[in-house]
Fold this sequence. Notes:
disordered N terminus, 40% helix, alpha/beta, 11 helices, 14% strand, single chain
Amino acid sequence: MAENETAPYAAPTPSRYRTVHLQQAKDEGRRFAMLTTYDFQMAQVFDEAGVEVLLVGDSAANTMMGLPTTLPITLEQLAVYAGSVVRGARRAMVLCDMPFGSYELSPQQAAENAIRLVKETGVHGVKIEGGVRYAEHIALMTDAGVPVMAHTGFTPQSENVLGGYRVQGRGEGAAEAMIREATTLQDAGAFALLMEMVPGDVARRVDEALRIPTVGIGAGPGTTGQVLVWQDMLGLRSGRMPRFVKQYADLRSVVTGAVQDYRREVLEGTFPAPEHGFGA
């Protein structure tokens, strides 16, 4: 491949990924990658690896705070993670979840807290869970200057209403209903739509029906982009993994082995060695 050529899936890298670049990917039949990110150093790594979008997910409640669900994390707590990610990302677009309780009461509440996240952390947009009833919320946030990614299918913040972690979009008429919902969210101003735990053929039909890009997690290969929780994707988390996760590394074993080596050398007295110290 000549030096000035790009791979078939690639496009010229902008100085900063923005909504227009994700829309271009959709329009040109290209794809983009998104990863959850919660801290400065991993943001640097993912940014340097070329990941187009970093999502400061409310999954920080589980992955960073050890909480059983995403529901308890607050706007203030999530803002700390968001600011850290923004400082580590040079080119990636950084989005932040609107946590449970920060937007549901009214469009005004949603807009106020979205503006606060942008002003205090520097994120480039937010993600909001929920369906048609949040169209007015999305419209007001967008009018206020905050780009909004909508989130439909399985919405973890509604797990108590949905009856747990359950695939959405199954059954007769489900695809048509999801297309109608997605179109409403698009028309409200959402620049993209994330679909979680949706049958692949349904997600593909939704993507084909929309002019805006879609992002999938457990929604098959037919979406414009894909997102995973980074600790799942890199094998840092223990326990049962969701079916839709592919592990690209086993960091848990790597880190465990390195820490065991460190501890052994400390106990043996072989660390620190002379080269790790200072002379008089």
